[in-house]
Amino acid sequence: MFTGIITHVVPIKKTRKTNDGLVMTFARPSDWNDLRTGESVATNGACLTVAAVRGHEYDCLVTPETLARTSFGASLPQKVNLERPLTMQDRFGGHFVQGHVDSTGTVVAVGQSDGYRLGVRFDPDNQGLVVYKGSITVDGVSLTVSDAKSDCFEVALVPHTLKSTTLGSLKAGDVVNLEFDVIGKYVRSNMKARENHATG
Fold it and tell me: Most-buried pick from 6, 49, 147, 188 (CB within 10 A)?
């Protein structure tokens, strides 16, 4: 479980294709001395498993399924947002984030009128999961929806988010990972089940 509060931004050092997918090598943050193989790391919002740790870097295997469902299959960024899973001692500063990317979206607008705002187009099939003033995760960052339409939403980015994540470098046309609020997903699933039961 994650919160969408990014702790580090690191570069992708190299990639290597294998029969199992794509091995990505990341710079290991200097304060991650206890990072071990088998751990999960939210990487631009996608929960990846650490496959190897070497000195100041670590590897994760990105499977074909993950490549197909995330922005990693479209184009690899130069840098990624990182968050390790919650511990019992951590503050819960964002919202419930699973690291399970639901779909990708496309940046359609970046503007600085009335603050820094980011517009993202998404699959209209997910319209019911994007709610005004609700939570959404973009490339692993917990954000609040400031405007919502049938196939596009807008978020406002505060200076700290621009400084501490990769979102400030996004431009129109860029593909981003989206994870919708897990509570909303459970509610929609339950409502669909009730509708199916009612129509029998």
Answer: 6
